[in-house]
Amino acid sequence: MKEIFGPPLRAALLTALVGALAWFLLEPPSLDGAESLLTILIAAAAIIFVTGWLTTLLAGEEMPEREFRRLVDRSDALAQLPPPDEPPSEFDELVMRALDDLPAEFREVLADTPVTVSNRGHEVHAYGQYIGDTVARSNYPDHIVIYRDTLERDFGHDPELLRAQVERTVRHELAHHLGWNEDGVRGLGL
User: Fold this and answer.
1) DSSP β-ladder status, 128-131 and 143-147
2) 65-187, CATH topology level
3) Among 59, 108, 122, 140, which residue's beta carbon has the most beta carbons within 10 A?
4) Model pLDDT, residue 1
5) pLDDT < 50: residue spans in the chain
6) The pLDDT value given to residue 46
7) How far apart are CA 6 and CA 21, in angstroms?
8) Global pTM value
């Protein structure tokens, strides 16, 4: 119940606070009659509810818990497998180099976060994906996936462009791990 009504109520309360402060500062209320005050309160409640509902609707839905659990369980199972017999591919080397080129502080943050390469980017229409709930919380295991298929499809024609995009994707997913949302990460130029 909290998961359903929590985000809209938080958005509604924040909207109410900002709206009330703006209204109070721009046009201080007159308490001439109870009828006008009641009308103002009802209108404010309707605006707050609609704004909170729209904010939540526009924010989109989170990944269903069952799907998230499936991804985490699969990642954990893959992490338990022995290392492959074959040496890393050129693409794997690009990902490893992108991780090695991160500043030491960021490499420390990723020390316990698995970074894997997958060929399923076409399924999620992405170059990379962060799975978890940020470094600040530990409710779910963190995991970063870099999608070889979509990166090579779009940038494989130019080795330097592919290297730069792999590096950008690694940094993009690291920013999600550090707590930035999609708009914040894009604001960083990633």
Assistant:
1) antiparallel
2) Zincin-like (3.30.2010)
3) 140
4) 53
5) none
6) 77
7) 23
8) 0.56
129 phi, psi to nearest 5 deg: -150, 135
Cα within 13 Å of Cα(82), Cβ side: 2
Q: Which of 184, 183, 129, 175 is nearest to 151 (CA)?
A: 129
- Listed by start position, the domains of the chain span 2-59, 65-187
What pLDDT was estimated at residue 25?
65
Mind spelling out the 3-state secondary structure of the chain?
A: CHHHHHHHHHHHHHHHHHHHHHHHHHCCCCCCCHHHHHHHHHHHHHHHHHHHHHHHHHHCCCCCHHHHHHHHHHHHHHHHCCCCCCCCCHHHHHHHHHHHCCCHHHHHHCCCCCEEEECCHHHHCCCEEEECCCCCCCCCCCEEEEEHHHHHHHHCCCHHHHHHHHHHHHHHHHHHHHCCCHHHHHHCCC
User: 18-27: which pairs have CB atoms within 8 A and are 24 or more residues apart?
Assistant: 19/44, 19/47, 19/48, 20/44
What are the two backbone dihedrals, phi and then psi, of residue 116, each rounded to the nearest 5 degrees? -120, 160
Question: Given this model, what pLDDT does residue 97 score?
Answer: 94
The Cα 168–Cα 28 span in angstroms is 50
